[in-house]
Predict the 3D structure of the following.
Amino acid sequence: MNIKELTARMGKVELVATVIDKGEAREFSKFGKSGKVCNAKVKDDSGSVTLSLWNEQVDLVHVGDTIKISNGYVGEWQGELQLSTGKFGTLEVVSSKGVTSDEETEADLLKGKTSDEGEKVLTEDEAEEEELSELPIDDEESVE
């Protein structure tokens, strides 16, 4: 099925699309249970549509991923179509080329890691700090 074929209140949607945009996740509480939701934009050769991501799907899907929706549902919000897995559908990441919206920095990735030789791997900031701490201090020329 192609995105251009989707209509409001359509069920049993089967399609493969690429995630081209992902918004910020929002947390909510309903009936005493908390969760999170996020809107993403997906496209195929025929067009694009908003995809609602719920709970664990929010962290699973990233911009650039190719996803497969099985038994999905198309709703409508303020005149715009919104695709989701609904109660009975599934979402699968077919190929992950994604970039997380809260992309980890190199410092986060390296923090606390060691090299193959067992030496601590320093981030740029840690290396600069170590260099500065090794410089001789001249008490007469202290800078404040």
Summary: Residues 106-134 form one domain. Confidence is low (pLDDT under 50) at residues 101-117.
